[in-house]
Amino acid sequence: MRRRVLAMLVLALLLAAVPTAAQAKGASAATISGGGPGGLPGGPIELKGDGEPGAGTDLANLAEAAGVFALLWEDGQSGALAAAPTTRRGPRYTITWTFPNGDGGENLVRQSVWPYAAGGPVTFMATGQKVLDGTTKGGWYRAGDNLRQQLVTLGLPDRQPPATPRPATPPAATPAPAPAPSPAIWPWVVAGTGVLLLAVVAGALFLRRRSSPGTAPAR
């Protein structure tokens, strides 16, 4: 009896130590494809391994950088966007995530990624995709440049995002035209002074004539 109880305890401990597919929240694989006509030069990129948050694998790091866990279930996490960015996004890639479910099967969740978008990489996950025991919350997500760097390391083209356009600089104000120069007044001053002098001289001559004694009459 004791042996039976001991065996059951050991089995229970082993089951508790090994996470089941329903308990696990990380992906077990991911496939990166797309990028425009012809897709990736070397074909789709395959990743497999432990995709649990914090596992430190390429799969887990890619999921965290792409905002997978924020778009699966979490609300209000930093990086979530209310609407699609209107800036230039560049070529689109698709990451298909594989999540093992509790039924022994797999759920596939698709996420669109624009690694070279102006202002930083952007991702989108559609709402309502079946995953584990629920559905995806979905939405738009603004990732950091580490997502672009990771994808380049995995095999995407090494391209830089376009510069964010700066707001147009308003044109410089046209300087007001200089006022027209005032007509010179010195010619008028000279002319007025000359007329005044002539008047003074004429007046002096007239007064001198009147004050001079006339010629004595003959007797």
List keywords for this structure.
rod-shaped; alpha+beta; two-stranded antiparallel ribbon; seven-stranded antiparallel beta sheet; 219 residues
Description:
With 219 residues, the protein is of the alpha+beta class. It has a domain at 19-154. 30% of the residues lie in helices and 21% in strands. The protein contains 5 helices and 9 strands, in the order H-E-E-H-H-E-E-E-E-E-E-E-H-H. The chain has helices at residues 2-17, 58-65, 68-72, 145-154, 186-211, and strands at residues 27-34, 45-51, 80-81, 93-100, 106-114, 122-125, 130-131, 134-135, 139-142. The strands form 2 sheets. Strands 2-1-4-5-6-9-3 form a 7-stranded antiparallel sheet. A two-stranded antiparallel ribbon has the order 7-8. A hairpin with a 2-residue loop joins strand 7 (130-131) and strand 8. The chain is rod-shaped and about 165 Å long. Residues 10-23 have low confidence and may be disordered.
Low-confidence stretches: 10-23
Strand neighbour order, sheet with most strands: 2-1-4-5-6-9-3
User: What is the end-to-end distance?
Assistant: 191 Å
3D shape: rod-shaped
Radius of gyration: 46 Å
Determine the fraction of residues in helical runs and give it as a percent range.
Answer: 25-40%
Largest sheet: 7 strands, antiparallel
* Strand count: 9
State the order of secondary-structure elements, H for helix, E for strand: HEEHHEEEEEEEHH
Strand content: 15-25%
Rounded mean pLDDT score: 78
Number of helices: 5
